[in-house]
Amino acid sequence: MTARIGVITFPGSLDDGDAQRAIRLAGAEPVALWHGSHDLEGVDALVLPGGFSYGDYLRAGAIAALSPIMTEVKDAAAKGMPVLGICNGFQMLVEAHLLPGGLIRNAHQQFIRRDQRLRVENASTVWTSQFEVGQEITIPLKNADGGYICSAETLAQIEGEGLVAFRYVGVNPNGSLDDIAGLTNPAGNVVGLMPHPEHAVEPGFGPNTAAAMRSGVDGLPFFSSAIASLAAAAA
Amino acid sequence: MPTIVVDVMPKAELLDPQGKAVAGALARLGHAGFEGVRIGKRFELTVADASEETLAAVKTLADEILSNSVIEDVVGIEVVE
Lengths: 235, 81
Hints:
The complex is a heterodimer of chains A (235) and B (81). In chain A, 23% of the residues lie in helices and 24% in strands. Chain A is built from 5 helices and 11 strands, in the order E-H-E-E-H-E-H-E-E-E-E-H-E-E-E-H. Chain A has helices at 16-26, 69-78, 88-95, 152-160, 220-234; strands at residues 4-9, 29-34, 45-48, 83-86, 102-104, 112-120, 136-143, 147-149, 164-168, 180-184, 190-193. With 81 residues, chain B is α+β, with helices and mostly antiparallel strands. The model of chain B has no long low-confidence stretch (mean pLDDT 93).
């Protein structure tokens, strides 16, 4: 069985094509889905891609989080379907309250693009099981609204329950609390992060590494983790 | 036609990077005495009739869509003729 992973395109999505390519390179079948539909077309997992849906109007991800298809996304997430939100997709997941807290303008007020070091903090989620806890990876980051904030109470809960999936290493690029780069829900099926794993999946087109320019493929295990989890569930 | 004005502010205890940047600029320009600057949003909703029912509906929309209660507070809803 080849897993079918849906990528939802919203008005203003930019990285839906890259997410589809990453899914293909990881060995699954990408399925293009449209925000205005109520049909998930029987996919096994979902990716909410990066971009600037609705021009980031109102709040980043806010209007997209109210799209017709998000009703089905919330239902599927509650039933355990793997859902990965990347950058603008992460912003949609917090706006839809599928993950706690909020994402605001970067503390330095600038758009930033860099190859970002991350530390894997939780390797028990559907999207991170092929990493090791404490492993450091390099994933491209590019955003203007990546500052993670939440109340002190929520932060204590997130840290206490081990819901931080990834933390920034070396540089905190946007002022996020506790260097938080990505989160998981308690069940481990919904994961969101600001950096872009779909841009680090093929030698020649990824971030630079010590070994060679553009050779970084640290994004691939996100997708292969989910595919392995779906295969195990189907077996 | 009546207009319903909804004011939304970032929560007091959370970071407001935009306000912080403006406060820094004021200080650099020599305008002393401003201890802090915070930036919020003002929504103007033009309606045919600002009835109690409409106001109740706007209150719900303000809480659920115009603001995100995780990071923002609705600080005012008023009718301006």
